[in-house]
Design brief:
Length: 80
């Protein structure tokens, strides 16, 4: 997060906040609103949120519904 500019940081935090609120109130996440996709291959078990050209790779704790952020990076670098 420290490497992100202020606008990108704000956008990422907003999306994560929306995800957190949905998990707390509805116990589900809204894939359409947040553009969430489940990942395949080496990142199977993780999901990603698209935030402009940035991607947030995360997973939800199975028992606690905690959000574990794996990586935040640009689209071109995140899947390397």
């Amino acid at each position: 997060m420290e490497k992100l500019d202020a606008n990108s940081r704000k956008s990422v935090l907003t999306k994560i906040s929306i995800l957190k609120t949905c998990l707390e109130t509805q116990n589900v996440y809204p894939p359409e609103e947040l553009d969430i996709k489940k990942l395949k291959g080496e990142l199977k078990g993780f999901s990603r949120i698209r935030v402009g050209k940035m991607r947030v790779i995360f997973e939800i704790g199975k028992e606690t519904d905690e959000i574990f952020i794996y990586e935040i990076n640009s689209r071109g670098n995140i899947y390397d």
